[in-house]
Write a structure and sequence with these properties.
The strands form four sheets. The protein has a seven-stranded mixed β-sheet with strand order 13-12-11-14-15-19-16, with helices on both faces. It is built from 13 helices and 19 strands. The protein starts with 6 loop residues before the first strand and ends in a 6-residue tail after the last strand. The chain is an alpha/beta fold and 406 residues long. The protein has three domains: 95 residues, Tetrapyrrole methylase, N-terminal domain (Cobalt-precorrin-4 Transmethylase, domain 1, 3-Layer(aba) Sandwich); 101 residues, Tetrapyrrole methylase, C-terminal domain (Methyltransferase, Cobalt-precorrin-4 Transmethylase, Domain 2), CATH 3.30.950; 184 residues, Vaccinia Virus protein VP39 (Rossmann fold), CATH 3.40.50. The mean pLDDT is 93.
Length: 406
């Protein structure tokens, strides 16, 4: 469609008309259609053209604008290209974007600190699920919030994971008549009541716990007295390497048990998602306890795969620590659901399961490679050392066959 009219997207602050450059105010006055949220439209009570309040999704907004032949101005809070509607609209329409100062910039100006080194994310209109592994360990964190994911809810979430080495700065109604700012402990912020329009800055005041790749087995809560139902550290590291995870990978962990693989995967795929399933309720309870200790917020459900996998999105990587005796059906579903360039890593402790897995993958037209891991730890004895072997494991990596594969 050839556009003949002017479409401008203008960022505006909470002080309304006073926050705009004179040229921006002139464009609004000369436009024929003014589009925005009801709160932003209220800043222009004497506007002579048609006002259209945005009440539904962005797709509907695009449909409205595409049918317009008049000159249009769209209003958005702050910088429309910073977690705003500008990114979406600019892909669908030929628009000119004129940003205002973002709320993040204003919030950092209130504490007099630079913000280029801060980790910035949004929980506005989205779930907080997985937030903890995204933000853990950063010195400065900025969060865009909403009415549900408000400062109190954020504080409660962080306290669940023991993230109390941070202080919080809450900036409310920035540049508005009801502007309010202040520092809080997480306990204070949990009990507070805040304006829906706010930004939260977290600043670390003490060292955070640090777990490098290959967390010691004894650090995990495990089923006792039959301790040992855990993917051992050395095998875990080799299996994680085989999964070839990216920072935004979607990962399945089937038979998660203590959650050791899922937890370490979540620390690698910080911007992604990890989904785990476990048939034993006691092991699942340990998995949840371990999540809180190691600050990873994964989705872990009770069930015996493949039942329950339909609740998970299609994965980039799948780890299978146990098949529960239903290997063929399980691998069929995993191979069907795996994304095009994804990987499946299966750990087999017996030759029989190795053979079954290889036959299944062959039937499903997947390539396989096998690493036989036979490791041992030293054990002091009479002033000397001998080696105590770990159970040998076959680490099978499966990938979908390409057109040129035999």
């Amino acid at each position: 469609m050839e556009l003949t009219q002017s479409i401008k997207l203008i960022g505006i602050g909470d002080s309304g008309l006073a926050s705009l450059l004179p040229q921006y105010a002139k464009w609004i006055e000369e436009s024929e259609v003014l589009i925005g949220g009801e709160r932003l439209l209220e800043f222009f009570p004497y506007y002579k053209g048609e006002k259209i309040a945005v009440k539904s999704g962005l797709k509907n907004l695009v449909d409205i604008i595409q049918k317009e032949t008049r000159n249009v101005v769209i209003l958005a809070s702050g910088d429309p290209l910073f977690y705003g509607l500008g990114g979406y609209l600019s892909k669908k329409l030929e628009i000119e974007v004129y940003p205002h100062v973002s709320s993040i910039q204003l919030a950092f100006s209130k504490i007099g600190e630079s913000w280029q080194d801060a980790y910035i994310t949004s929980v506005h209109g989205r779930s907080m699920k997985g937030l903890i592994q995204k933000i853990d360990g950063y010195d400065k964190i900025a969060l865009l919030t909403d009415a549900d994911n408000n400062p109190s809810a954020i504080a409660d979430y962080l306290i669940q994971f023991g993230m109390t080495e941070y202080r919080a700065f809450v900036a409310e109604n920035l540049q508005g008549e009801q502007e309010k700012t202040g520092w809080y402990s997480l306990e204070e912020m949990r009990k507070g009541i805040f304006s829906p329009l706010n930004v939260v800055i977290l600043k670390r005041t003490a060292p955070s716990p640090n777990w490098t790749l290959g967390i010691a087995d004894d650090e995990f809560a495990q089923r006792r007295p039959d301790k040992g139902l855990i993917t051992k550290k050395e095998i875990r590291v080799l299996s994680l390497q085989a999964l070839n995870l990216e920072k935004d990978s979607i990962v399945w962990d089937i038979g998660t048990c203590t959650g050791s693989m899922a937890i370490e995967a979540a620390k690698i795929a910080r911007e992604g998602q990890v989904f785990a399933i476990e048939k034993n309720e006691g092991d699942l309870a340990n998995c949840i306890e371990n999540q809180h200790k190691f600050r990873t917020d994964i989705t872990a459900i009770h069930g015996k795969a493949p039942e329950g996998l339909e609740r998970f999105p299609n994965p980039d990587a799948i780890f299978i620590g146990g098949t529960g005796g239903n290997m063929k059906d399980l691998l069929q579903i995993c191979c069907d659901r795996l994304k095009e360039d994804g990987r499946i890593v299966l750990n087999a402790a017996t030759i029989e399961n190795l053979y079954k897995a290889l036959e299944c993958f062959k039937e499903l037209k997947f390539n396989t490679s096998i690493l036989h891991a036979q490791l041992a730890h030293n054990k002091p004895i009479l002033g000397m050392n001998r080696f105590t072997p770990l159970n040998p494991i076959y680490i099978i990596t499966a990938t979908r066959k390409g057109e040129n594969d035999d």
